[in-house]
Known about the structure:
Layout: H1 2-8, E1 34-41, H2 44-50, H3 57-62, E2 65-75, H4 78-81, E3 87-97, H5 100-117, E4 122-124, E5 127-135, E6 144-153, E7 156-167, E8 170-179, H6 185-206
Antiparallel strand pairs: 1-2, 2-3, 3-8, 4-5, 5-6, 6-7, 7-8
Amino acid sequence: MTKAIDQVTYEVSEESLKGMPLQLHQLPENLSGFTLLRESTLSNKTMATHGFPGKSEEDYHNIGRITGYLREFASASAIPQKKDGGDIVAATVVHLFKDEKSTKNWMEEIFIKQFLDNIGHEVGENQKLVAVEKLEIDDFYSRSIGVRAIQDGEEGILSTTVIDFSLGRLLGVSFIVTVGDHGRTELVTNLGLELERNIVRELLTTS
């Protein structure tokens, strides 16, 4: 089944990516009360502009990335209060690569390394990355990997828990941003598993 699904990912168009990231009603119960913050195509140019510093549009092209799509949600109640332990942002993303080798390379050679390389550096507006913890994740169809990153800035400490998983030449990403030094491995895993199911549903409708 897995190999058949992997093969179907070669039929995916850039347009069909839009149906893969989760919609509001598909979020886990723990994230009830969240509302849509933004959704957008993630071109290589966008990744270079808003991703980790030091990578160009050409760099993303050279590692086999084609494009992606993001759907991000925010908790209206948590953001103004900045309550410790409050989850304030949740998102799922699907990236399209040229082949399975490229997704494997991203996960094994780039994903964790870009976090580790940026410890002590600014990674957003007035946000410094201060710590990174690698997470062992094995709940998915195929390859999966996770990280918990701690950022410090004007608004205080924020934690981001991220999981990447592959399905053929697709890379699925789920992440949650939490106020304070907290981990959300179980919740982000559940978010990612729902994303994986949604990707498979979309793939089966295109095959």
